[in-house]
Write a structure and sequence with these properties.
The protein has 361 residues and is α/β, with parallel strands linked by helices. It contains 14 helices and 14 strands. Strands 3, 4, 5, 6, 7, 8, 9, 10, 11, 12, 13 and 14 form a twelve-stranded mixed β-sheet that branches. A two-stranded antiparallel ribbon has the order 1-2.
Length: 361
């Protein structure tokens, strides 16, 4: 968390030549960008991505716009909770959230459509990463797949291998509380129905017997992404579904872990920008969103966090390119799949209850 508990220090200057009282002058912030008279509150993500935004993107924005940007770190559910809590007196101007949250926030009237006329960089965003009639735009994309130790386990050709007896009590499953658990449901539905991930997401009822058959292979569920290191340590053979942004930093550091993306397709973890309804300083908020969508800003963020940009025009060295689903042709090659949250979100509570029934008993 950054800036929430600070008390802004107000600097005043006297006009010695005119004798005008110092108190009559406009107030200026002296603990942010010099001479800043405006500020916005932005809800960003945690971990490495949040750190990069705070240290590498925000300072330049503050200097360019003579303002102060305060940040609060969180994940999608906490971001939405913050918007609900401040609905009657909006505090945030921009909120980061996953694509699943854009649909929820729009439906609840927490966000407004992105002000496209003030966002020239929006034109460079791949159309597949504009959500809910322009209420959200992606700025970073992770890939969702299974975690393996490549020294021990070969990459899966199909998700069907997850049910094989050789993985009895050797599979560490993502908690049903996390979005990734829905991807496993969709993969199971695809196996049962023979349909693509896109079509299988509407056939979840067919997946539950298949999910029950998976139970003997599940040793436990996990909530902290760092627990996937149990794969590297040999305590389990496979984990996930997990996001690449949570796994590849370990790979880069030399840990014997890697992602595999079976032939059914690759799930997309999509980080988005939203424009808070009634938020302070809307023009400044629009400028911040526009800067986040700048191709150079996106390229730096992608290289630091091993996530793909949402805009055309970025280029990466091979040691970075191998970890990200970019450019768009590679996304198509990997079968990158974004779920239909307008269909899933209303049904998710019932699916969570069923998940707990199957794996909790």
């Amino acid at each position: 968390m950054s800036g929430n508990s600070e008390t802004d220090k107000i600097g005043r200057r006297g006009l010695l030549r005119t004798g005008v009282a110092a108190a009559a002058l406009p107030l200026v912030f002296i603990n942010g960008a010099r001479g800043a008279t405006r500020s916005i509150q932005v809800g960003i993500y945690t971990a490495q991505q949040g750190e990069y935004v705070r240290k590498q993107i925000i300072p330049q924005f503050e200097a360019d716009h003579q303002c102060k940007v305060f940040t609060t770190e969180g994940v999608t559910l906490t971001q939405i909770a913050a918007l609900r809590a401040t609905r009657d007196n909006p505090r945030y101007s921009v909120m980061f959230m996953d694509d699943i949250g854009v649909e929820l926030s729009k439906r609840e009237g927490l966000i407004d459509a992105l002000p496209a006329a003030q966002l020239p960089n929006l034109a460079n965003v791949y159309k597949r990463f504009l959500f809910n009639d322009g209420y959200g735009a992606a700025f970073a994309i992770s890939t969702g797949g299974l975690v393996i130790n490549p020294q021990v386990t070969k990459p899966f050709v199909t998700y069907a291998e997850l049910w094989e007896p050789r993985f009895r009590q050797r599979y560490l499953m993502t908690t049903p509380k996390f979005t990734q658990s829905l991807y496993l449901l969709i993969a199971a539905a695809s196996l049962v129905t023979g349909k693509s991930l896109k079509d299988a997401q509407y056939e979840i009822d067919a997946a539950w017997p298949k999910m029950a058959d998976l139970k003997p292979n599940v040793v436990s569920t996990y909530e902290n992404p760092s627990q996937v290191m149990m794969v590297a340590q040999g305590q389990v053979d496979i984990a996930g579904i997990e996001y690449s942004k949570n796994l590849y930093p370990y790979t880069v550091q030399g840990a014997p872990v890697d992602m595999c993306f079976p032939r059914e397709g690759t799930f997309a973890g999509i980080n988005c920008l939203t424009f808070v309804k009634g938020g302070p300083e809307p023009d400044l908020a629009a400028a911040f969103i526009n800067q986040m969508l700048d191709a150079k800003v996106q390229q730096g963020l992608a290289a630091a966090t091993l996530t793909a940009p949402s805009v055309a025009g970025a280029a990466f060295a091979p040691d970075i390119a191998k970890y990200i689903a970019y450019p768009e042709a590679k996304m198509d090659e990997m079968g990158l799949f974004a779920a239909d949250w307008s269909y899933i979100n209303p049904r998710r509570p019932a699916w969570l209850e069923k998940y707990n029934q199957v794996f909790g008993s």
